[in-house]
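note to self: the first set is below, dont mix up w the second
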Amino acid sequence: MIRIISGEFKGKRIHAPKNFDVRPTTDFAKEALFSILSNRYSFSNINILDLFAGIGSITLEFASRGCQNITSIDNNNKHIKFIQDTVNTLNINDRIHLIKHDVITFLSKKSNQSYDLIFADPPFNTDTELYNKIINLIFQNKFLKSQGEFILEHESRKDLSELPFFSDSRKYGNVRFSFFNNSKVL
């Protein structure tokens, strides 16, 4: 179960089937992350790319806070269908574009659209080499606008500060958000 913590759909609970193999971002971590982001962005004016969208916890939080242009990528048909059903229920089809695709394959192609903010929550057992590949593909293939920011959610014990474009890291329980951008300093 996920809960939307703020915005238009604040308090809305969304129940995913028990057989889904997902680990939604905790409310505690989401609150902390969105507190940071709300001080940096006007949500209604930015483009979002949500990689490894899972059941849509982050996608729905952005939509609830007024984001009008969100692209969500996941390679699991059940997850995409679940997010689409939720989007239909909330009547926000015009804000969210769902793509069923492998994230690495998607990022391997030059982007014809760039994003203000990219969020990725790959499986927690992901190794640093794959994180590095994701980061390099995002920056090489111009998925991120020049003043944009990439946020990677990962296990708190992993330190990614040596990876390219790293700028900051915040730890919340067993979750860490690492921030990457072109300028190194926000």
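second set (the one i keep forgetting abt)
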Amino acid sequence: MRKILFLSLFSIVGFSCTEKKEVQIAIQNDSSFDRSNEIVEVAMSSVTEKLQLNDTATFIIIDAQGQQVPYQITYDGKIIFPANVKANMESEYVIKPGTPEQFPTMTTGKQYPERVDDIAWENDKIAFRTYGPALQATGERAFGYDIWVKSVSDLVVEDRYAGELNPETKAKIAELKKTDSKAADELYKSVSYHVDHGNGLDCYKVGPTLGGGTAALMVNDSIIYPYCYKSFEILDNGPLRFTVKLEYNPLTVKGDSNIVETRIISLDAGTQLNKTTVSYSNLKENTPIVAGIVLHEPADVCRYVASADKGYIGYADPTDNVNNNNGIIYVGAVFPQALNDAKPVFYSEKEKTNERGGADGQLLAISEYTPDSDFVYYWGAGWSKYGFDTPESWFSYLEEAAAAIQQPLSVTLVK
């Protein structure tokens, strides 16, 4: 696992060491359940002001047991770190001068131009990817987020791409296909990320749907599907938070062909869910917005929850090869703002076969987008082979996540 010393960003800010100073941080949990390793935020400007930081020294964060905790300075000027707070209790942390310990990198991501411009990212729990302009240029219709399950806390995505896309191995497979198709297939399976080599795999099917939780505008009950991103900027890249900004090609909405979507997606260490902020420029009137999860089973066997009141949707997906012992992929989305509705929508046989790549339907959460605003929600996944034994355990996770978002930890700088 990669290690980081947390030194590179601190050449910008530091401590005046002529006088020893520290800042105490009180974190209050007013909810009825424990909050474990939840990432909290403190404004960097508040800390620099209280500690009179200069541009040379480093600092550390200490918990109540005197142990250092990892932290990161984000692109938008925040110090983030994991906090543990019991239900209806308070925990204290201290920021003071010191040399940071080495901690493992828990989140990372990058673009893979060698795989049609995928952007893939992960934390210690789960991995995701979204598709880029090179894929769109091929004509393949893949609109939503993809999910890569994992069963280890190690970072695995880069190695998966390296195995799948190794030029020498691909050339050898191509040669073997001419003389020994069985050997070619065995070699392919030995490197493919569609096979579980002990840490998980890609066994989720997106197709021309919203995939694992994509948001989209909706007009007259018709979803205006976004295609692949046009441009991107990685804003944070670990150790505790990955953030990417995506901009999309203009959409046509109610006859206006200049509606541009922007997304900012963040994944923190220790969580199953991405925080995503969606905005649309040039939109002139309120428009329904949905976030959806593709359904790969007919209505009579689908295992899902959809609660507009509690603000979440969830689904137990059978994976793209139910006979291959790939387990169950649990998918979900959580919404801080009020939902107008949350429900499954199943396709007709014609739409299922001709338009949606065989998917049975989508589980939709429906809200309202106001021009010049941000639509913020959380989406993500889990796996039956890594932390979630039953659909009920996943649905309980989503319900607790929704409650936690509605009642965030209170972070106060004491002195």
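remember for set 2: The first helix runs from residue 44 to 51.
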